[in-house]
Amino acid sequence: MDRRTFLRVSGAVPVAGLAGWPPPDDWERLRKRLSGPLFRPGDPGYPEAKQGFFTMYDDRVPAAVVGAARVEDVQAAVGFAARHGLPVAARSGGHSYPGYSTVDGGIVVDLSRFSGVEARPDGRAVIGAGARLGPIATTLAAAGRVLPAGSCDTVGIAGLALGGGVGLVDRKHGLTCDHLEAARIVTADGRVRTVSRAADPDLFWALRGGGGGNFGIVTGFTFRTVPIADVATFKLTFPDGAQAALFAAWQEWLPAQPDELWCGVNIDAVTAVASGTFLGSEARLKELLDDLVRRVGTAPAERGARVLDHLSAMRAFDEPESRPGAVAARAAYVGTSRMLLRAAPDPAAVVEVLVRDPAVGTLIDSAGGAIARVGARETAFPHRSALASFQFLHGAEPANGGEAGARRALAAVRDGLGPEFGTTGYVNYLDPEMPDWAEAYYGVNLPRLRAIARKYDPRGIFAFPQGLSEPRSTVHIGET
User: Which InterPro entries does the protein's record reference (predicted)?
Assistant: First the structure.
């Protein structure tokens, strides 16, 4: 069932909405209220305005894209969507794996104009919800600061932080959401709230790992940052055939490593690579890596390490050849995930599942350290004790079987792993076919998150197929 059908059957979208609803005059009244542009089908710029990151969803036809320029534009869009029973979705970087930010038949609130990044003297950063990770890192680096986050320049801060935010220094500094101090959000009642531990603390809790789009439209964040430091980066490329030995050694080696070391593993049918970062000396890094190599029992075919400034180090991991799927241009691929809850007793069996299809790539991101020192219920992100996250990727070009073929291939990997992976997944790698998706993404925090969604979105204004809000009936908020 696609999004439009889901919402129509649930009663959240009037059937007339599929054939010209709302009336043209109502759209024109909305257009006049906005400071930013409104793009409707047939308008100049609409084909570009509706695009997200993934090309597979270019055939979707939003009823409108609101190029929000100020928070009042977001309020107007939410009120209009609520009054007319239209689905509404926020778009920051547009990297939603199922394309949920390109809402067919509804309103896309494009936050790209909320792109400001302010590095304050007290070490805090005020960041618009439409800012991308590349400009954020560049601006903060100029002020001698870092916000722990991912490495892909084009990813939007909103989706990343709201789902948790894994990155290359998070064993030392924690997830991106752990640095959130306040957020400005437009909720379903049209109110603008600035939430924190002191103001709407339940909603603030939910925004730290509860997933993007679930509770309203966030327009801005205040984060704590950390001082910038040089980073030693490394890469060990092992010969084909060493995949099982590398994974077995890595999962036993990692938990004993200092927080300053982050090490990910890339595995596919021909690849066995360990790479990462170290906030320390090259000499100490060499000792740690020598230990890993001894455990693998096979010398790497290539080995490299170098000390870089933080910005250069993060950019090194954004190169397509460094991490499959880390590409700058628009792309066609799909992903899914599992969390490794404990060391696998049969690592060779795990790797056999990972390499069975040569078109599937696996990115294993190390956890532990500072991530694990936050309780599972302290924020909405539940997977605090996991050893690692596994992300599985597959190209979705027509030559690879398209999106449907890619999802079939990924499902075989996702569901073929052992009990040490459990019913788990990372909400920032949304998979529309994830079994028991709500339990997988939210774990012990699911009941509380659903209660908060009912409190702040009782009529399901922000409902979507894998959202926490339940679609009910049309609510009238404000005027058109």
Answer: BBE, FAD-bd_PCMH, FAD-bd_PCMH-like_sf, FAD-bd_PCMH_sub1, FAD-bd_PCMH_sub2, FAD-linked_Oxidoreductase, Oxid_FAD_bind_N, Oxy_OxRdtase_FAD_BS
